[in-house]
Amino acid sequence: MxxxxxxxxxxxxxxxxxxxxxxxxxxxxxxxxxxxxxREVVEKAQANGFTLWDTAAVYGxxxxxxxxAQALKGFARGEYQLSTKFTPQLAGDGDDPVADMLERSLxxxxxxxxDLYWIHNPADVARWTPRLIPLLRSGRIxxxxxxxxxxxxxxxxxxxxxxxxxxxxxxxxxxxxxxxSSERAGILDHCREHDVRFFSYMVLEQGVLTGRYxxxxxxxxxxxxxxxxxxxxPQLRTLTDRMRAIGEDRGASAADVATAxxxxxxxxxxxxxxxxxxxxGLVRACGIELSGEEIAELEALADAADVDTRGSWxxxx
Length: 317
Description:
This protein is of the alpha/beta class. The chain has one domain: TIM Barrel. It has 13 helices and 8 strands. The chain has helices spanning 35-47, 63-72, 97-109, 125-128, 132-138, 151-162, 181-184, 187-193, 224-229, 233-248, 254-264, 277-287, 292-305, and strands spanning 12-14, 52-54, 81-86, 114-119, 141-147, 168-174, 197-201, 268-272. Helix 1 links the parallel strand 1 and strand 2 (52-54). Helix 10 packs across helix 11 (254-264), helix 10 (233-248) packs antiparallel against helix 13 (292-305) and helix 11 (254-264) crosses helix 12. It is globular and about 55 Å long. The two termini are 30 Å apart. Mean pLDDT is 92; it is low at 24-30.
């Protein structure tokens, strides 16, 4: 049995972009990251109680895990939680690809256990889920989550783990004002009813919901996110203007409002942090209580924008 229920801060920190080399055309974000800058992020986040770090073997093909381990050096292992992922699409052909991928992650992360281990994408739930059971028994992973799984896939994974006395304790899906498929499909309700923590990723839609970008100030040219989002920036203006106004009333930014919305929906947002200053925004977001009217208004404006931001890796929920 899992020793204790998964606990997590109100916001988790994502390190997808930490796997980026910063070279144009290489990686998703086109960001220039330095070891000292990321160390500053870690110190500030840890000091503010943001102690759950989410990465994956596939982010920069291991680079994100390596960089994260470096940035966390000197913190006691009990002071932070690590969340990383097994990606079926990259499984090796050994006897136990799940254990193999985990061992390599543990090695890069410089630890003997992962607090939260995810099956990253649903390829074959019945094939991969049972492989987690010996890893749970050995203590190399403490809790299991599934990412990008629909309701049927979540239930099947939970049933398989349940037969061994474990369970799916977390679900991680793309969820934002612009993309609410997990709510419409009943996944949020399922998580509430079964005491499963729902982690929402892409809450800021790669920066598009921060209010920092618009038709006259598009995303960095040459990055994959520019290709994905620059074309829809005109449709989002009314929404981001309203988010900015709601934030201004509270001394906060549009990005803080997007994060506060995800918290208000009962989810744990995973926010990518590449600058120490972003941590201040997370502190503000955790202090914002949006009214029911504000939530309804933001969702109506988001629906009116009528954009589809589903990622190429996602299937419909």
